[in-house]
Amino acid sequence: MDKQLPHIAVAILNYNGQKLLEQYLPSVRALRYPDFSIWVIDNASSDDSVAFLQREYPGIKLVQNAGNYGFAKGYNEGLKTIEADYFLLLNSDVEVNPGFIDPVLTAMEKDPKIAFAQPKMRWLREPEYFEYAGAAGGLLDPFGYPLCRGRVFDQLEKDYGQYNDNPFVFWASGACLFVRADAYKKLGGFYEYFFMHSEEIDLCWRAQNAGYKILACGESSAMHLGGASLQKENPKKTYYNFRNNLVMLTRNMPVGRLCWLLPARLALDCIASLAFVAKKEPKAARAVIDGWGGFMKWWFSSSRDKFPQKRGFGRLDGISSRLALWLRYCGRQNGYD
Length: 337
Hints:
37% of the residues lie in helices and 19% in strands. By secondary structure, the chain is an alpha/beta fold. The strands form 3 sheets. It has an 8-stranded mixed beta sheet, with helices on both faces.
């Protein structure tokens, strides 16, 4: 074993995901990188996940959280017990190829300012397409809506090799997130209020404000099933997406910009709610309104860790010059970054 190589801990967060572990763990076990360990962080699963791991994979290290803490706190708690140079946070429904670590880690080793990185994420159901969670690297539009190279809202591009470069982006996918361990610790990890959704964007935003970089490595790829935690149609997913995006913007956006951005977002989100009504999706429409209610509840809470020390937007990497809404409904689906 080459002792000069950094150690990477592959950390898989699990909640009642025995079937996913059965299906996708073999691809993780087959990784060719010389110095890695596999950890499963279990969020108090009520299925047989833990017994399955102890029986079938005794070499995999297990961290058992006391409750279902969601993505943000689940990882924060679990990673406290893991020592490594890098973490690879991997969803339990991600399939990897044996050599996918090397291009990403090589790039991160060359530039110590790269705190987080992702490979290209393609869709397991239709592998010629990019996958929703991160696609070929995350961006943010002027109104604070997240989009990706290869994905605008629910519109996915085919992968023709158009994003095989290695650019700096605004955020990297939490489904397959390479993490420089010391940067993660300095930044304080994920903001636990989110529970799930937007936590990786918030963390990457804070990282950029602290002087770090976020990389999308087009030389590597992974396959993601998607929707294993919450299906796209679940109104809870809509609720978390809207609430957490507003919380994230308020935490990280410069105050002067927020003065016009939040009223504008209120108008746009009301239109989104009406669009759900028009599509006969009343639960989703209600979830948008509830998302604003959850945001207001957070706004008036007394939590001391609501606001990071540094804010920034205009000079950060990965800000799209085009509006996500325009790209999705009126513009081209590629070449927008």
